[in-house]
Amino acid sequence: LPESEGRESIIIETEGGARLQWVGGLQLNPLSSRGSVTGSGPLVPVLTRYLQDRLAFDADDGRIELGFDYYFGLRPDGTPEAAVESLTLDVLDLVLVRDAASAPFATVPAIRVALDSLTWPEREVRVGRVTVDRAEIAALRDETGALNLEGLVVALPESAQPAQTAESEAAAWAVSLDELAVTDFSATLTDRSLREPGTIEVSNLALTVHEISNADGAQIPFALAATIGSGGRIDVDGTFGVSPSPTLNSRLTVEALALAVAQPYLSDVARVTINGGTLAADIEAALRADRSLMATAAMTIDALDVSDAAQRERLIGWDSVVVDGLSLDSSARSIEISEITMRAPYARLFIDTDGSTNFQELAIEREASEQDEPVSTAGTRDGSAYAFSLGRLQIEEGASDFTDLSLPLPFATRMTALNGELSTLVTGSAEPAMLNLEGQIDEYGLAQIEGSIHPNGPSEFLDVDLFFRNVAMSNLSPYTARFAGRTIADGSLELSLSYAIENGALTGGNDIVISDLELGERVEHPDALDLPLELAVALMTGADGRIDIDLPVRGDLGDPQFQLSGVVMTAFGNLITGLVTSPFRLLGRLVGVESEEFDRIEFEPGDAQLAPPEREKLELLASALTQRPNLGLLVPRVVAPDADTAALQEARVDARSGAAIDALDPAIALLDRRRDVLESLWAEASLEPTADALRGQFTSLPENAPGDAVASLDSAAYLAALRDGLVMAEPIAETDLDALADARVAAVRGLLGDLAISTARLTVGERVDATPNDAGWIPLELDVEQRQNVD
User: Fold this and answer.
1) Residue partners of 176: CB distance under 8 A and separation at least 6
2) H or E segment at 695?
3) C-alpha–C-alpha distance, residues 484 and 562, integer Å
4) Alpha carbons within 13 A on the beta-carbon side of 66
5) 130 - beta bridge partners?
6) What stretches of 53-175 show up as alpha helix (H) in DSSP?
7) Is the pLDDT of residue 370 over 50?
8) Cis before 30 (ω within 30)
9) 214-248, pLDDT tens digit by residue?
10) CA-based angle 491:494:496, to the nearest 5?
């Protein structure tokens, strides 16, 4: 009947005791209805059963208290209209499970919804308040990596989904919520997919969101606070928007967050244990309408203590790391940090007997799976890298322990009181960052590092000077044993290293000063160079007990075979080899002599007298030896048998004939006296032919002489023949040559002794048969040897 409304009441009860009631009026002409709906009891299990084809979970329990007023009807123009008002919905004691065999993944004591109104065709929904109290979520990730919260709602097939039209999109609903309040929420995530299953707990979570709206440009205030079960608190507040595009302005505060919360996940990739450490942070972030992110932050990590899970020894740590003035701008593709301060950082490096390090052994290899995707190295969506700038990195009171068991002798050292900084570092800048560090090595050693590093990486440009002072040489015995097969008993080291890298090319210098070095015992090692270290040490040690070494190195970092230790070892070997093979070159340079013959003293055949040039050479050599007190000379006994024999023969014949000539009457002509003496010596030696016969060989008539001419004697030729014959016949024994060799040694030793070179530093060598040089002089070639300082 027109305008006739019937009053109705319908009550529905389920087998579980839930109750639904409708009380209202229904008019059919025109169609309209107005009334109230109430419901109570365990309706949730009924609903989940009814929607079982869409829900992948069951409700073991859950009561609903529902009530609302409604109206629907047709307007005079035939347009339908509807309204729901004063809706209250309480969902109580909700318990959700994936299946009957699973533990609940969610329990919610109370969800309360207060709906102010819902109107049609205005398409407006206004909700006053939604509260969720004491909810608990138990997330579980199983051994396969599947999460029990995944796939809770089954999506409709595409054919069953309503088509979106321009009209439906334009007629979107306007939804607003005055307040959403979540109180005393707690959640746990148990992850069994890890090598060591772990649990993360969040408790006392409180979330409030005000003035929620999907209107364009609406900014929605929110605040969230939570306590982390392992320690720490997180607070977030700010505003966010959802339309026309997501936006966010928020501030995140982290207080004393225990880093141990990451232990289960860290254990999955590395064999380390986080024994301590807390994070505090203050972060402001803004997600803009263009989806660019801007953030500023300051953070501190205190009391970090990470140990090696295998050896159970401290690996890295610090008292604090403070990061000030961090800002990120994704639109500008930049990250800036004002300053990083590290207080009391510590690191321990351990090299095992096989050469592996404790850091190499930390990594746990993952088995690749089909689901693994290659990780993009792009800095942003367009693939460009982020620009990075750091105002300063400061280190205060750093320390490190270093142990190397791969050497023949176990080695360990400790650095403490490391202080310094790395100055401004800006990628893309031509200005390098300046590095300045200073620390203490062991008890009394000093280490200083200064230099510059290119912002694009050390392989592009690096210029660093390292200075080590008063380092105990005995501590370096394991390395000298490996490189040279010798330990070091005593001494101290000052080391100045200068390394530069430009476009992958390394150039470096090693200025080394060693004081009071004493070599120790020999140690066998397969990589040790076969070097005469005692002699090299004596050659390099000055009168003040110091060794000064300049050791340049070169290398190519792009070479896969490049190793800095190998480059230095090769340079060191070449240095020592050059010293011991050309020791007199070093001695000559000490006194400004570049002669290649500084090691040779030359004598005339048959003579042991030092010529003036040789005396000068010995004087310079003595000056050089005073600068190398641990160096001795080996002086060989030198003769040239043929040349010295001939010279001794001549000398003896000339000496004997000369004495006899001087004994004769000087009134007699010298030529006659010489002939008489030589003929007498000839006769005494019983030489053949006789002197008369020999004289006949030099007596002749002049050419075209008359028949009565008298034959004449070529006196000069005759006397020369007599002398030559006497020289050839003069006997020289080996003892005579030995005596000459001894006299030459005595001449050298005598002059060096006069120049304050102790005879204890001079060793007489074996007799050496030499060959005269191009000038006919006999070279006595000196050699050097290591001797204890006896001056």
Assistant:
1) 124, 125, 126, 127, 211, 212, 213, 214, 215
2) helix 691-697
3) 21
4) 20
5) 113, 180
6) 166-170
7) no
8) yes
9) 888 889 999 999 999 888 999 999 999 888 889 99
10) 150
Crossing angle of the two packed helices 533-540 and 564-581, in degrees rounded to 10: 80
- Name the β-bridge partners of 341: 322, 394
Provide the token pair at 496.
């100045």
Three-state SS for 343-398 is: ECCEEEEEECCCCCECCHHHECCCCCCCCCCCCCCCCCCCCCCCEEEECCEEEEEE
Query: Strand ranges (DSSP E) for 98-173?
Result: 106-120, 124-133, 136-141
Summarised one tens digit per residue, pLDDT across range 547-575 is 776 656 566 555 554 444 554 556 556 65
> For residue 44, what are its two tokens?
């949730």
CA 751 to chain centre: 57
Q: Name which of 641, 659, 666 is nearest 772 in CA terms.
A: 641
Residue 564, C-beta contacts closer than 8 angstroms, at least 6 positions apart: 506, 553, 555
Task: Copy the structure tokens of residue 788.
Answer: 């204890």
pLDDT of residue 608: 94
Judge whether 134 and 110 are in contact, CB under 8 Å: yes
Q: Coil, helix or strand for 206?
A: strand
Q: How many CB atoms lie within 10 A of CB 490?
A: 13
Distance CA 529, CA 482 (A): 8
Q: 187 near 205, Cβ under 8 Å?
A: yes
Three-class secondary structure of residue 412 per DSSP: strand
Per the CB < 8 A criterion, the answer to whether 232 and 278 are in contact is yes
Tell me the C-alpha to C-alpha distance, in Å, between residue 347 and each of 304, 318, 405, 437, 446.
11, 9, 17, 16, 18
Burial of 609 from C-beta contacts in 10 A (0-12 / 13-18 / 19+): exposed
Q: H or E element: which one contains 45?
A: helix 43-50
Distance in angstroms (rounded) separating the CA atoms of residues 398 and 411: 21
Which tens digit of pLDDT belongs to each residue from 515-555? 777 777 777 766 666 666 677 676 777 777 677 766 565 66
- Please state, for a pLDDT cut of 90, what percent of the chain lies above it: 41
| Max CA distance (Å), the chain | 198
Tokens of 105: 């993944």
CB 491 within 8 Å of CB 476: no
In whole angstroms, give the CA distance from residue 251 to residue 233: 14
Burial of 684 (0-12, 13-18, 19+ CB in 10 A): exposed
